[in-house]
Design goal:
This protein is an alpha/beta fold and 401 residues long. Helix content is 37%, strand content 20%. Strands 15, 16, 17, 18, 19 and 20 form a 6-stranded antiparallel beta sheet that branches. A 5-stranded mixed beta sheet has the order 6-5-7-8-9, with helices on both faces. Strands 11-10-12-13-14 form a 5-stranded mixed beta sheet, sandwiched between helices.
């Protein structure tokens, strides 16, 4: 696919810069830091199984290309001109560039490297290209890296490279506990997401990591800033914003929507429960290494264990985690849920349907990428979680898959 893309661009008179095997956020850096680049493409199916392939594309300054910002225009042009060949009398040229060192300097700029203490951590690359960068960072910061699945391998011999799946995390959990590591960092295959296990091997939800990172950045940059997050689970991040006097903004889930909203609002940070974390000083793009570095810095600064560090964001907060259901008519089910609950609290339609009360809230929405209905429930008391979940599932008519 990369070969075909290169040949097509060159034939159309476009100069191509080949930056080799990279992570998705290295593409964002390469395009965002180089005004001479009109855009970029990384061949990747992200965290999907080995039989998938695809490409992620960005415009100049690493701006996202989505259905609302040109992707459908490309689709329609391809359909309309599928029998035509695009060519130019002047052929493009191919050059090569290694962006890794520049990228590492960029991400290290988010922390004070002199503060970093010597930690032992599990680094699970999920057979992707984050391996080289993480190894060099560990060497530079004098960290004890225990590498896992560090050789790039697109066949993904241990299954789907998605750390949102408990099966994918199981190996890291076991190794964290056996090695007495301080924490584990698990990247998905293209490494635009990073998920964390604490020193006990316990998974830390992206909702709590979003709150932690928002807290860190608001301390660094001041409370007079905007923080964006998706509507799945909002209370931990909202609480942090209230403590700092920052403005919380809820956005539709999905990287293209989040990035566009960040640019419009000039927000300093955005986080999704799916572990996409976005930074204004990173071209408003998501990045899987910056969160790792910020958490290293915070661990060093506080002297706390990982579990102690995240406890304030988790106290008094309970949630189901994301539950997925296969249903025949997603719109009909969401409508039925709305009819049942609309009088019990404040409604929001930013992404699917959300209902907020004093003691509990939920968000139910269609997946952006799969034929699934996704439900998240959060509450201030543990018993309310199951009560609301059970009632919603009675309307859905099925159990989570």
């Amino acid at each position: 696919l990369k070969k075909a893309l290169t040949e097509g661009f060159v034939g159309a008179g476009v100069n191509v810069v080949d930056i080799g095997g990279i992570t998705t956020d290295m593409l964002y850096y390469a395009v965002g830091s180089s005004p001479e680049y009109s855009g970029g493409i990384v061949v990747s199916a992200s965290h999907n199984p080995k039989q998938y392939n695809g490409a992620k594309m960005v415009r100049e300054k690493a701006a996202a290309i989505s259905s609302e910002t040109g992707l459908f225009d490309i689709r329609d042009a391809l359909k309309a001109e599928q029998d035509k060949t695009v060519s130019s009398n002047t052929k493009g040229e191919v050059s090569r560039r290694d962006v890794l060192n520049g990228y590492l300097d960029h991400v290290l700029g988010f922390i004070d490297t002199d503060l970093i203490k010597q930690f032992t951590f599990i680094g699970n690359a999920n057979f992707g290209y984050v391996n080289r960068g993480v190894a060099l960072l560990a060497e530079k910061l004098k960290l004890n890296l225990i590498p896992l699945n560090f050789e790039p391998d697109g066949t993904f011999p241990k299954g789907t490279p998605d750390p949102m799946l408990p099966d994918n995390r199981a190996e890291s959990v076991k190794l964290t506990r056996a090695s007495n590591a301080d924490f584990a960092a698990i990247w998905d295959a293209d490494a635009d997401r990073c998920m964390f296990l604490d020193e006990r091997g316990e998974f830390i939800s992206g909702a709590y990591v979003t709150a932690l990172l928002a807290d860190i950045l608001l301390v660094k940059h001041g409370g007079d800033n905007k923080i964006i997050f998706d509507p799945r689970v909002i209370w931990p991040a909202t609480k942090v914003c209230e403590q700092h006097g920052a403005q919380p903004i809820i956005s539709k889930s999905g990287h293209a929507f989040i990035k566009d909203r960040m640019r419009k609002e000039n927000a300093i940070f955005a986080g999704e429960m799916s572990a996409h974390y976005y930074f204004r000083e990173n071209f408003y793009a998501d990045n899987g290494v910056i969160p790792f570095l910020l958490i290293l810095e915070q661990l060093s600064r506080t002297g706390k264990s990982f579990s102690e560090m995240v406890r304030p964001y988790m106290e008094g907060h309970y949630m189901t985690g994301e539950l997925n259901y296969r249903v025949d008519d997603i719109g009909k089910v969401i409508g039925a849920v709305k009819n049942r609950f609309e009088k019990e609290g404040t409604e929001d339609f930013t992404d699917g349907y959300s209902l907020n009360t004093v003691d509990w809230r939920f968000n139910i929405r269609p997946s952006n990428t799969e034929p699934l209905l996704r439900l998240n429930v959060e509450a201030r008391k543990p018993g309310l979680i199951e009560k609301i979940r059970t009632e919603i599932e009675s309307i859905i008519g099925s159990k989570p898959r």
